[in-house]
Amino acid sequence: MAELVPFAVPAKSDKTLLVWELSSGPTAEALHNSLFTEFSRFGLLYSVRVFPNAAVARPGFYAIIKFYSAKDAHRAQKGCDRKQLFQKSPVKVRLGTRHRAVQHQALALNSFQCQELANYYFGFNGWSKRIVELQELSDLKERENEDIVAPLQKQSLKFFCALEVLLPSYECRSTGVGVAEEPVHQLEEGPLSFLMKRKTAQKLAIQKALADAFQKLLIVVLESGKIAVAYKPGEEIVDVRNEEELHDLIQVNCVSWKQSCQGEEEYLSDFSLEEDEFRLPKLD
C-alpha cells in the first residue's frame, strides 16, 4: 500500500516512537545526538526530544522521536527495540498506538523543513524554485509626502512574493505566495539598518511563498519504494510558524530537551501507558 507524506508537521501516533531506559551517564545533548544518528538510518526525522526521567524513577532519560513516514518509524522500532545501540544496556522502543478521536488541522512546515523533506525524497537536483514576482508593498514614500506624518511605529517594509516550485521528473509545478513585513523607525535607524531590514523582509516573503507552494504537494511513496507526486491546490494547512520564520527557520530536530519540555504531555498521549512493560522504570 502506498504511503502519503504531506509537507506538514507529523501528527499521527504511528509516526512517533518512545525510547526509554536510556543511560544516565551521558548528557541530554549527547543522547540527542546519538539518538539522531542512530534513528536517522531508517528515514528522515522531524524531531528528537530527550527528557529526564520523573523524580520517582531511577536516574536516566527517555526520548520521543517523530518521523515523517509511518513506514520508517515502524522499521526503526523493529530494528532498535531491545538493542544496545550506543550504550551498554539495551533500550526499549515502542511505536505510538493511540489514535485520537478528534482530528486537528494539519500544521504547516516552515520553508527550511519543506526543503529538507524535498531534498530527501526528490534529491537536491530533483526540484527547483523560480521567483515569478517580488514586489514591494511598502508605503513609506507615500507617507513622506503626506502633510501629517503617520506614527513611526506603524511604518513598515512589506514585500509580496509569488514563486513556483518545479519538479521536472514528475512534470509537476506548484505556485505559492507569501507576504512579509518588517517594522521600520526611519528617524531612529541608519541607512545600513534600513537596507538590512529590507533584505530581511524580502527573504521572509520568499520563504513563506516557498512553504506555501510545497504545502500544495503530496509525496506518494509506492510499495516498490518509487516516489510519485500529487498536486492538491485546495489542501489547506494552517501556518503557525511565523515565530520560527523570524528566527531564521531553526530546525526543530536541533532543539534540546531544555527547550522542548512544553508539549511533553501531548506527545506521551500517543502511547498506551497501561501496559506494564511500557511504563517508565521505577526505583527498586
Automatic annotation (TrEMBL):
InterPro entries associated with the record: DSRM_RDM1, Rad52_Rad59_Rad22_sf, RBD_domain_sf, RDM1, RDM1_RRM, RRM_dom
Q: Which GO terms describe its biological process?
A: DNA recombination; double-strand break repair
What transmembrane ranges does the database entry give? Answer: none
Show the GO cellular component annotation of the record.
cytosol; nucleolus
* Subcellular location, principal: cytoplasm
Per its UniProt record, what SUPFAM superfamilies does this chain match? dsRNA-binding domain-like, RNA-binding domain, RBD
Give the source's domain of life in one word.
Answer: Eukaryota
| Record GO terms (molecular function) | DNA binding; RNA binding
Tell me which UniProt keywords the record has, alphabetically.
Answer: Cytoplasm, DNA-binding, Nucleus, RNA-binding
| Record-annotated RRM domain positions | 15-98
Q: Where in the cell is it found?
A: Cytoplasm; Nucleus, Nucleolus
- What protein is this chain from? RAD52 motif containing 1
Q: Which organism is the protein's source?
A: Propithecus coquereli (Coquerel's sifaka)
